[in-house]
Amino acid sequence: MKISIVIPILNEAETINTLITHLIKSLHSTKNIEEIVIVDGGSIDGSIDIVTAFSKGKKIPIRIISSNKGRAKQLNAGAAVAMGDILYFLHADSFPPQSFDKYIIDEVLKGNEAGCFRMKFDSSHWWLHFLGWLTQFKSKRCRGGDQSQFITTSLFKKIDGYDESYIVYEDNDLVDRLFAIDKFVIIPKNVITSARRYNEVGVWRLQYHFLNIHMRRWMGASSQELYQYYKDKVTS
Q: Residue 8 has what pLDDT?
């Protein structure tokens, strides 16, 4: 049983090599990893050249593919070419715990076909610490892509992967569907994820808009309406 790590990127020249180095150093065994699939959504900062040069001579195959921009589209594109029994979806600024590969495989062998890790932000801000604390609870309201997500390839295909109509909220949509069929577990180890988005936008401003997006989704907002809100309020 082997894992394909799928990482969507868009202009991640400053972080991607650090992440890959961390992944390799954190492995319990290189035998557990089929490959690392980097899915580029149109980077213009030299990310691809950096990964290409960095990947030479590595024990684990590092594949680079191109995709239309959009995390759901990129994740599905990576899953489509992945050869592992398990898919592990990871953001470019999230760093899994030591022996993450063993923890994932152990859960799958126990019959848990999908799940995530707990999460901590690389920030001392009390609110971000609180958000990380919440990820220990088995509630779909406490989930997010920053915690990383694993799922068997067979189950991913069975539920038709990520819904590409979502430009934001794609991770939560997948989790909602997995919770609906009782196929989700939280591994009690922490992914350390960057607080850079909170630092750029502002902790309270970004949190307000994230909560607004969740509320709009719960009230029936479409994927396009969620994206339009995010575009208008967060990225503008």
A: 97
What Cα–Cα distance (Å) separates residue 112 from each residue in 83, 155, 234?
20, 11, 35
Length of the chain, in residues = 236
| Parallel, antiparallel or unpaired: strands 33-40 and 3-9 | parallel
Q: What are phi and psi of 20, to 5 degrees?
A: -60, -40
pTM of the model: 0.93
For the segment 38-57, what is each residue's pLDDT rounded down to a tens digit? 999 999 999 999 999 988 88
52's tokens: 């290409």
Instruction: Look at the block and give the residue holding tokens 């991770």.
Output: 171
pLDDT band at residue 66 using 50, 70 and 90 as cut-offs: very high
How far is residue 23 from each of residues 19, 35, 106, 125, measured CA to CA in Å? 6, 11, 18, 26
By DSSP bridging, strand 86-89 and strand 149-152 are antiparallel
